[in-house]
Amino acid sequence: MTIIGQIEGHFVLPPQNKTTKYEHIIPQLVAAEQSKTVQGILLILNTVGGDVEAGLAIAEMIASLSKPTVTVVVGGGHSIGVPIAVASTYSIIAESATMTIHPIRMNGLVIGVPQTFEYLEKMQERVVRFVTSHSRISEEVFKDLMFKTGELNRDIGTAVGGYDAVKFGLMDEVGGIGQALAKLNAMIASNQAADAAMPEGRLTQ
């Protein structure tokens, strides 16, 4: 399964944009979870980010699957692509890939009242909480990367490369498709062995 381009949410993006529509991905994940022939899922991620709630919805769906999942970040897993990347059972990032961590943005009409900033802060906390609970990175380190200045041109945040993503605990391993398939097949084989060892016809404790 591929997640590429911009994550499209409740508003349709211009036709020249390459997009991943969350209303397409979610039914595929449901079908994979229900299928008796699908034993594991490989996700290939190269996204610039996009709609926060749509990205979190995809990430939550991936995290809740009972079947083993492996994510490979190639090119980039930026912005809301970070929660999607860490949502799987095991996450791999290509050596040349990057992940941009920055505060969330808001498009359209913005009302300059305290409630607006409180809403943004709560939305941001949802992202931080999800990432830190599905990876080995601490909240302190993740927020340091998110609010870092001087790293990005005219922006706040950090572009994290492949080896740094593993060093910070964001991703599990630097590699590619070969390592991802090997890991996924190993997890599938482990599940099959566990199922075969379970005695049939009686309860176990």
From TrEMBL:
Gene3D superfamilies per UniProt: 2-enoyl-CoA Hydratase, Chain A, domain 1
Gene Ontology terms describing biological process: proteolysis
Pfam families linked to this entry: CLP_protease
InterPro entries recorded: ClpP, ClpP/crotonase-like_dom_sf, ClpP/TepA
Record-annotated membrane-spanning stretches: none
GO molecular function: ATP-dependent peptidase activity; serine-type endopeptidase activity
Protein family (similarity comment): Belongs to the peptidase S14 family.
Name of protein: Translocation-enhancing protein TepA
Originating species: Paenibacillus spiritus
